[in-house]
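Dear support,

We are seeing what looks like truncated structure output for some complexes. This example has three components. We would appreciate it if you could run it in full and send us the complete token output so we can diff it against ours.
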Amino acid sequence: MHPSSTRRLLRSLLIPILAVFTALVIGAIIMKLAGDDPIAAYKGLFQGAFGSKRGWATTIRKWSPLLLTGLSVAVAFQAGLFNIGASGQFIMGTIFSVWAGINFPEMPIYIHLPLALGLGILGGMLWGAIPGILKVTTGAHEVITTIMLNYVAALFAGWTVYAGGSQGQKPGPLWDPTAKAISRTPPVVESARIPFIFGPPYRVHWGVVLALLAILLMAWLINKTTIGFELRTVGRNFKAAKYAGIRVGWTVILAMMLAGALAGMAGAIETLGVNFKFAPEFSGSVGFEGITVALLGQTNPFGVGLAAFFLASLAAGGAKMQFDSGVSTDIIQVINALMLAFVAAPAIVRWLYRIRKPAEEEEGVPKISWGGG
Amino acid sequence: MTQRTPVLEVKHITKRFPGVVANDDVNLALYEGEILALLGENGAGKSTLMNIIYGLYKPTEGEIYVKGKKVEMHSPRDAIALGIGMVHQHFQLVPVMTVAENIMLGAESVKRGLLDVKKVAREIQELSHRYHLDVDPYAMVEDLPVGVQQRVEIIKALYREAEILILDEPTAVLTPQEIEGLFAIMKRLQEQGKSIIFISHKLKEVLYISDRIVVLRDGRVVGETTPAEATQERLAAMMVGREVILTVDKKPARPGKVVLQVEHLKAHSDLGEPALRGVSFQVREGEILGVAGVQGNGQTELVEVITGLRRAEGGKVFINGEDMTNARPRIITQKGQSSHVPEDRHAYGMVASYPVADNLVLNTYNLPPFAKGISINRPAILEHAERLIDRFDVRTPSPLTPAGSLSGGNQQKMVVAREFSRPIKLLIAAQPTRGIDVGSIEFIHKQIVAKRDEGVAVLLVSAELDEIMALSDRIAVMYKGEILDIVPREEATRESIGLLMMGVKRDERVDEIAF
Amino acid sequence: MSSATKFKRTSMIGLGMAIALLLISMIVNSLPLPNNSIWKVLFGVSTLNFTLRATIPLALGAMAGILCERTGIINIGIEGMMLAGAFAGFVVKVQTNDWPLMASLLAGVFAAVAAGALMGYIHALFSIKFKMDQIISGTFLILLALGLTSYLFNPDWVAEGKFSPIAIPGLSKIPVVGDVFFNNPPITYTALILVVLLHIGLFHTKWGLRSRAAGEHPRAADTLGVDVNFYRYLNTTLGGMVAGLAGGFLVLEAVGQFQEGMTAGRGFISLAAMIFGNWMPFGALGAATLFGYTQGVQNALLLAGVVNIPRHFISMLPYVVTIIAVAGLVGRVRPPAAEGKVYETEGSSE
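Here is the complete output from our reference environment:
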């Protein structure tokens, strides 16, 4: 490797690493103030994530949804769009894939599994397309529409598995009648499940490999293709993009569809590889974590992979941390938020550690436009 | 005269920005009741110096004296308190506020906790009466023509009882006739005892209006003279540091067949108001059609409609005989074999964070050899960049340097390199030399003429009348969304074009003379 | 027609609809209709009461948004500011349960407003001093508030008591209008008064003129000696306080307790109301009423026992209406021109 590019790589790692470090320190201070023991907490966290084979397996299992939602946010970012809707797209991916997964029991796996995965991707893609289309045709800002669509998706998914009401409300179409009053779907049939690389108790599935392949695909798409050139140009200067003959509106919709597809894929993989069913409480905060992952990874697909691995280890270690030290796993969400802040404002980190600003302008993340644009 | 204490004096002012010395040991004195012209080309450091005097920038070194007393300026508030007022080159007016609100901002009249608009309006009317600066205090600034906005700027300074007025390139946005009006106002201000610094890069204006001339070059004062002693040629030489050719050498045009034909074109502005009201003209092979006019009379919209960036609401655009009305920009550039040097290079012409190499393929990235299918060929893009950087003398550390870090002149050369290096039949150049150094201007002018001589049809839009006069073979003048007249270069004079820019047609002019 | 008047008129759409709603309701309530009639469900006094209660946090959120954005700071973190306010108000209320009720509640309000102010100040600091992308800074505030309130929340805590309505003598006797507007708890009155004050402040005071100039053309303000960033810090902090009050309303006046994530997207709906109201206080109030009405109808429908539609779809109403409202506004609103842009004096132009 060329010496200057090594230096550039190191420099691009510096801010995220310091951001993580600072967030952990402030997280510790908060724990201390709340009367918890931060040392015990971090020890539990680390041991939970890496202290055992099972810990490693959990980290790896939690890697793929974070990685894919991180890529989802990152690809939208490249086009200057802020996708806060990854969680809604994730849910739609889940619903589409679970529908395919609980039906067609006679299908062979080589048709059924791709079908279920593909439908999940499609579900997320369609859900992601809505804010894209709204933005292009009406100018509605994606921050508001994607958030609203998250709520709509969660309510829609809730209805599909609704167990029915006491006043004669009909149950939802995906509800499992054998679950009685519990709102959930029947289990996904065997032929639609993603095979394990390491079976129980580790339950590491091939979906993780699919997610890693998505990194390569996105890196190629963004940096080495005309489509990526168009996405990046629209994100950095949409007027220049228009001038360059790029169909800006279409590119915006495409970026949102790609983002949705990635988040939908995350939902599909979780459904077909981990949960094997859907219940309303599965949605979680994965969409918001995707924002932290994308920014911590500096919207670069490989960086996103690294960042996702780190957040996955925090998520995996959380249970042991809570068990060992009594610190609620909610502190991880606080740490994630702090990491987001420090990585998104390098000026804070530079100010804290007295680092000089690099002389040449970095290419950086495009600005998100609001209102007028 | 030199024995008097100057009302304003700067001593040994130096201002460094990262990588640039904008002002280098500048000394300057302004005496009461005089009009001092500060002459220099773009980037000579005039605006920086004025921003220092006005408290917007802090000098790296040096001192400022007002009426003989040393002063420290931390913000424009200090300058205003010392009686300094400034009319900025880009008007500092809030478009969605009224004239009165703009004028009182920062110096509000308050009655019982609420703004006293009536009182301010009364004071504005008094000022406009005294200095013949006619404005309506209740008008919304965005609805006012440029000339009136400038009056609002001047009143803003007078409202704060400014004794020293800095006018930064005030004539850049005006027609020759409006400029005369401004000069009358300046004379009146001078009679009332105000001292004025007049910044310009236009020699004739400086010679006409000022009492004393100071020339700035590369951030340094290179000379001081008076209109009586100076000539245009000498001033130009001082400004640029060498003898300049004020005209462009070119052979007579040999127009061929029609390349661009525009018929009854209509379009709206961003605010949805009519900007083009039926524009028609033709541009032939091997000729330059210059479009003159005060900015904001539809030129921007005209170029945008022709290049596919704005919708035509009516009328037709033909390129090489083909109907290209409302075609996509890509069709117009690639199928129509046209090039476009956009008016606003930062907004449209480049992606500042992209490397120079990527900017050089901004509208051809999808064509071979730069792309095969959807796969991009980086080596070909780099090789192309190196070739163009060399041929068009773009000064950049490397093809991978972000375009945003180049100087304005080099950015524009980059845009020109990209647009001029393709085989084209039509060239649309909008304000091709705005805000760049003389060296780059000469270079770009030569390139434009060279394109014409190759047989390219050139549509040149410029707010610089001198540029239009120097390059065009025919001159079209736009006024309020219409082309008032198209005049062959030989028949055009600055005065006749200036009257057209004011909306006065040739036949109407006869009546005027009869009066 | 000047574009300014055009934009002003658009902002009144929401307010016009809100007034129309009140008029319809007055007519419906004067007719002898059975209580379960669809008209009563859609326009009855109880629906309007639900509407007002849902409107108040949205209106406060929108006022918070207007305060920030009119000076040029984008604030999508209102949701987080509200949540922080709600939590702080709740904690202080729980801690002071043994005080007299009014004192305890006021302490809660104070805490809610203070927490909002802190969040607002952090947003200003990040946006102005550290030049963080303002949308990301807002996202950070939301995530921080979600995380911290969950981490610190103790489900065993119970707040005792909440604000009760105070009838305004005389006025509360007016049919419909009196029932809806003049028999409310104190934060509701405060919120409505704030809308009026903000309108007067923005358009008729020195503070408002300077704030708007900072949001539209900061350099113009700067060249006249107006300290742009001072107004940005001030107003973003004030905006945080108002958003904190909205959170305080949820805990101390509406629900009485804290629940994790209880703001449920209200901060974002407030933003939509702000946009729909074209960054004008009364316009935003009208839009907030419109969105509040969808929630009021939702409650009325659920209470009336409309069994045919699953409750999920009824609950979607506010979110879907928000999307439609934001999408229906192409080219009809104009945000402050300098919004989201960091203002630096040296080298920012030329």
